[in-house]
Amino acid sequence: MSTSDDTDNTSTLWGGRFSEATDAFVQRFTASEGFDRQLAQEDIEGSMAHATMLAAAGILSDHELTAITEGLASIQNEIEQGSFEWRVDREDVHMNIEARLTELVGDAGKKLHTGRSRNDQVATDIKLWLRRAIESISKELTRLQLGIVKLAEAHAHTVMPGFTHLQVAQPITFGHHLLAWNEMLERDWGRLQDCRYRLNQCPLGAAALAGTTFPIDRAMTSDALGFDAPTRNSLDSVSDRDFAIEFCAAAAITTTHLSRMAEELVIWTSAQFGFIDIPDRFCTGSSIMPQKKNPDVPELVRGKSGRMNGHLITLLTLMKSQPLAYNKDNQEDKEPLFDAVTTLFDCLRAFADMVPALEPDQERMRAAALQGFSTATDLADYLVRKGLPFRDAHEVVGKVVGHCVSKDITLEDLSLDDLQEFSDAIGDDVFSVLTLEGSVAARNHLGGTAPDQVTAAAKAALESVSNR
Ligand code: ARG
């Protein structure tokens, strides 16, 4: 949109070199204040730390430091109250705050930018902002995991069909399925902590690209802002956006996992499956079909994974082939990153609220596990224990299943005589392996679906997730 605008653009902070005002459209086109104002809190924290360090180094007087500190505090207040005037002619969050500071406290405000640049400033702000975001996302992820693990413990004995190719494969317990979800999320949690660990080095002091001629104390600002250490190379400090890419990668994988869970919930809530009911408060109806109750929350979460993958690709493409050091391209890092944070948080929140409220229909699950010859592998394993080679046992059971299909009956419907038609190795001890409960209980080893294993795994997961 290129309407005229009446901002006074001869007053920019870099105006000294310029002989004409910025074109009004270019001003809007290059500005980021409309979105990077989200970084205001972190920008103020970074400026406080920088000013305190400048005063300790004798570059600012105590009087100037006091003026800056008080000015920044009232700016923070104005922003919180909504009375701060954001100006597009001041381009971005950094220049909006700095220009306002100078309005409020005069020359001391103009000294704040000594020994720094917006390039190290913005890198620091985003890192501080993302660190906070990772902390709140991690809490939400933990809340979701706790909900899943508690539900798993409650359903350590609930039998359902396990699938491969979405065809009934072998009986499993619902608790075991839920704990598989938890494993995915546990890795996601680890990836977020890795991202936080690697981002936690302070770029402040790199200035525009080469460092500064002032006797700054980089360790001091790094400590004050809670970083583990200052970054080691000034060029890399201002151009590195790996942390944003890493976060978006971790976030895209997490939403991929959420989309898989969402897909299962959508399938399970269908009339054909009927394994799960999602309480009404997480669903919506149809404006035309009165009978409909749609699983909107899982569907939307499934859909959100698309934009998360998009954000990752956006950032990778943004950084690809960029020469050192800072380039204006990097201003494009913020919107995808901000949206990735909000979207991931919201998806986790929706699931964390919904999962503990899921209502499994244990009878439907059990009935479904009885269909599809889910204990056929158990029969084959039984024959192996009676001395048949596995391939021969597989062949025998294939014939048994074929017989049942032609008669439209299940394995549990067969008598001992029926079974012995196929192999005389079969005795009356076969029936315990053909039951669903016998089948799941037999897979009693680390990582198996036996209720004892699921109970132990759920307890261990509950303990480790609660003690983070
Ligand atoms: N708004 C800019 C950004 O988001 C801040 C850094 C600008 N630095 C510069 N030299 N133009 O990346």
What does this structure look like?
- By secondary structure, this protein is mostly helical.
- It folds into 3 domains: 22-114, Fumarase C, Chain B, domain 1, CATH 1.10.275; 119-154 and 173-361, Fumarase C, Chain A, domain 2 (Up-down Bundle); 367-466, Fumarase/aspartase (C-terminal domain) (Ribonucleotide Reductase Protein R1, domain 1, Orthogonal Bundle).
- It is 61% helix and 4% strand.
- The protein is built from 20 helices and 6 strands.
- The chain has helices at 24-30, 33-36, 40-56, 62-81, 93-105, 107-111, 118-154, 174-199, 218-224, 234-239, 242-269, 296-319, 334-354, 362-370, 376-385, 390-407, 416-420, 431-434, 436-442, 451-466, and strands at 159-164, 167-173, 201-202, 229-230, 276-277, 359-360.
- Strands 1-2 form a two-stranded antiparallel sheet. A two-stranded parallel ribbon has the order 3-4.
- Helix 9 links the parallel strand 3 and strand 4 (229-230).
- Helix 3 (40-56) packs across helix 7 and helix 8 (174-199) runs antiparallel to helix 11.
- The chain is elongated, with a radius of gyration of 31 Å.
- The chain starts with 23 loop residues before the first helix and ends with a helix.
- Mean pLDDT is 95; it is low at 1-10.
Write a short abstract of this structure.
With 468 residues, the protein is mainly alpha-helical. The chain has 20 helices and 6 strands. The N terminus is likely disordered.
